[in-house]
Amino acid sequence: MMEKRPQPLARDAMAYVLAGGRGSRLKELTDRRAKPAVYFGGKARIIDFALSNAINSGIRRIGVATQYKAHSLIRHLQRGWNFLRPERNESFDVLPASQRVSETQWYEGTADAVYQNIDIIEPYGPEYMVILAGDHIYKMDYELMLQQHVDSGADVTIGCLEVPRMEATGFGVMHVDGKDEIIAFIEKPADPPGIPGNEDFALASMGIYVFHTKFLMEILRRDAADPHSSRDFGKDIIPYIVSNGKAVAHRFAHSCVRSNFERTPYWRDVGTIDAYWQANIDLTDIVPELDIYDKSWPIWTYSEITPPAKFVHDDEGRRGSAISSLVAGDCIISGSSLYKSLLFTGVRANSYSRLEGAVILPKVQIGRHARLTNVIIDHGVVIPEGLVVGEDPEIDARRFRRSEEGICLITQPMIDKLGMAV
């Protein structure tokens, strides 16, 4: 791993998080909220990982661009991320699409989401811009990426994952030379180029870019003047720099933050029902691949003041218990049994109910005798007494959103349609 300088470059950087996307593959989970605002890990939201990486890396100027159904996200940011202080040369700006450039123009693409806020960014005077996606789960020290950017003299440095070559067909892929300089950027190639010296793997874009601020602003203004541009980093800005400047790949393994318990670099796009369920349930493993207990790299979030979780009743068949599960504060497990499940704040699981492989979002109430297997239950849902999910695929598919892997997403409108007494 590269050694840090005495003077961190992060002090002169601004992190700009692109958090306007819907995340339509998460289906009903994003009907009321943007993907970055979706709950994750028992207490946090997805966006908290990118923001925590910035704070833990030493970056103290942060902007978050929002657009799609942003209220839940903005409320979370206001509650959980309001500790940065201007008198300490810190800043935190929430930047909804507000038609700053034109009275009819929302953010047209990821690059436009930065361009429309140039007048807000420039007065802060950051020397570097770290452009981040707000919808991935990972721990990364951006200081190390900033150092590579400066040392290489690159116009743009792009964060990349090393993935098996034929698994890279859904990514933007970097074709690099032996020095990791990018020769070509190919969006979702059918036959991804391999890494020199390791041809079975390819370098896939993480949607993380580092620029010198002055250069980025020049490129964004040039792109805004191009009537044929789609105003997108991946489709327009990066290919232009690859062709006309110097673009360098930064390998995630070089800056991934790992505790003693994390064996491999961890990065997840939790953009589908199955991937979202799996990443949450993975946290219930005895030694999970992602260590959220690492105090040296905390995941900051809005944390409600809640009483402890409570487990009551000790009768046969009616025992409040949890095995290989994570249970947040203000949960009451009243004669219910949990196995490999993750419960967010304020869940009530009532007597004789049984949960296995359940991801339960905040404020859910689970009725007596319910049996729920391999489910995601949205915020505030009231599960009727005796409901059974995860035992009959045909019934589940008629009632709920059932994924390819057999995970059932349950929302309150779906419950309401059942016509069952609550």
Automatic annotation (TrEMBL):
Catalytic activity: alpha-D-glucose 1-phosphate + ATP + H(+) = ADP-alpha-D-glucose + diphosphate
Keyword DNA repair: no
Transmembrane segments: none
Biological role stated in the UniProt entry: Involved in the biosynthesis of ADP-glucose, a building block required for the elongation reactions to produce glycogen. Catalyzes the reaction between ATP and alpha-D-glucose 1-phosphate (G1P) to produce pyrophosphate and ADP-Glc.
Pathways involved: Glycan biosynthesis; glycogen biosynthesis
Taxonomic source organism: Ciceribacter selenitireducens ATCC BAA-1503
Keyword tags: ATP-binding, Carbohydrate metabolism, Glycogen biosynthesis, Glycogen metabolism, Nucleotide-binding, Nucleotidyltransferase, Transferase
Name assigned to this protein: Glucose-1-phosphate adenylyltransferase
EC number: 2.7.7.27
Location of the Glucose-1-phosphate adenylyltransferase/Bifunctional protein GlmU-like C-terminal hexapeptide domain: 307-410
The Nucleotidyl transferase domain, residue ranges: 16-284
Site (Could play a key role in the communication between the regulatory and the substrate sites): Q67, W106
GO biological process per UniProt: glycogen biosynthetic process
Family: Belongs to the bacterial/plant glucose-1-phosphate adenylyltransferase family.
GO molecular function: ATP binding; glucose-1-phosphate adenylyltransferase activity
Tagged with keyword Nucleotidyltransferase: yes
Binding site for alpha-D-glucose 1-phosphate: Y107, G172, E187, K188, S205
Subunit (UniProt): Homotetramer.
NCBIfam families, alphabetized: glgC, PRK00725.1, PRK00844.1
